[in-house]
Amino acid sequence: MCNTDRHASTDMPATIANEQVHEMSDSGVIDGSSTSPEQKQLASGSSKSPFEQGKLARWEEMSAHMRREFTMWHRIMRLDAIRVSGEWVPHSPSQASVSKRAANQLAMDVGLREDENLEPCLRHHAARLVSILEVYALYDPETGYCQGMGELLSPFVALLDEDYQAFWCFSSFMNAVRQNFRLDEVGIQRQLQMVSNLLKLSDPQLYKHLEMIEAVDCFFIYRMVLILMRRELTFEQTISFWEILWADKTAARFDKVKISCRKGKRKAPPTDDLLLYVIAAAVRQRRVFIMEKCRCMDDVLNECNNMSGNLDVWSLLDDARDLVASYHHKLVTSA
């Protein structure tokens, strides 16, 4: 879980983190094409002074406690980065063909030593993840690093060859999902509770069974919420699904668009919480198995984990739209 990972012990000396600040600036994670004042401060500088002064300034501003936090984050993010799936490779020919020399150099630059058996393209990808996540941990020290962030970053790194582009896309993405990584887990708990309420409204029998097996808190969908179903969906499905989520959030802000369900169905309003309706739809698609075979929360968790790679995202979206059309108003009224 998030809070456990972030407070794991580490023997990494603080000097390594200081070295990493220099390495991050040398790797060119951010460049000067950004336009906001803060981005310019981070990304400013010619080739003679690339972003290093801004990063060192941030390091100097950090308290001793935050520096210790950073060294711990660095160790965890390295281990997480080498475990990220390589299913992106067919979708990024330019990165799939990276040379062994380039991969080894970047891995050395970010202190990545746990990945010697990886193919060059996977090693290079892992090193880019570490480099960008290091910058993000300094850019947003309140959030820092938590397990799961690497899986959210990986699609951006796979699709964008320039680190600064991947960084700012990821940073904007995190503005919407950083609540998932709060130590108090308030954001996660709110979402789990909403799915629980939705199941109670839409499927009372299933909800009653979850109550009976003490799984009504919906902890079994924790991972789906945390990383937006990244592991449940394929790489291609993830890209399409996330774009639909972003489009729905944008439409919900303007409150002007009505999005149709299947032909002949009621119209579903755009919502900030489409992800949760999709997750509820995924659980409901497994309702028969859950009610007949699951006798505890761990059984439901295992069934949810088995969804990985076996979901029809378009069918889920259709079912989710139906749920939005039928229950969105009731959930908003009861909130």
Task: Please provide the count of β strands.
Answer: 0
Report the sheet-strand fraction: under 5%
User: Roughly what percent helix?
Assistant: 55-70%
* Succession of helices and strands: HHHHHHHHHHHHHHHHHH
Structural class: mainly alpha
Major pleated sheet: none
Q: Number of DSSP helices?
A: 18
Summarize model confidence as the mean pLDDT: 81
Quick one: overall form? Answer: globular
Span of the ends, CA to CA: 27 Å
Rg, rounded, reads 21 Å
Low-confidence stretches: 1-52, 257-263
Pfam family, one: RabGAP-TBC
Protein name: Rab-GAP TBC domain-containing protein
GO molecular function: GTPase activator activity
InterPro entries: Rab-GAP-TBC_dom, Rab-GAP_TBC_sf
Describe this structure as you would to a colleague.
Residues 49-249 form the Rab-GAP TBC domain. Residues 26-54 are annotated as: Disordered. This is Rab-GAP TBC domain-containing protein. There is one protein chain. The protein is mostly helical. It has helices spanning 2-6, 14-26, 37-43, 52-61, 64-81, 93-96, 100-109, 120-139, 149-159, 163-177, 186-202, 204-212, 222-226, 235-254, 274-285, 287-293, 297-305, 313-334. Helix content is 64%, strand content 0%. The two termini are 27 Å apart.
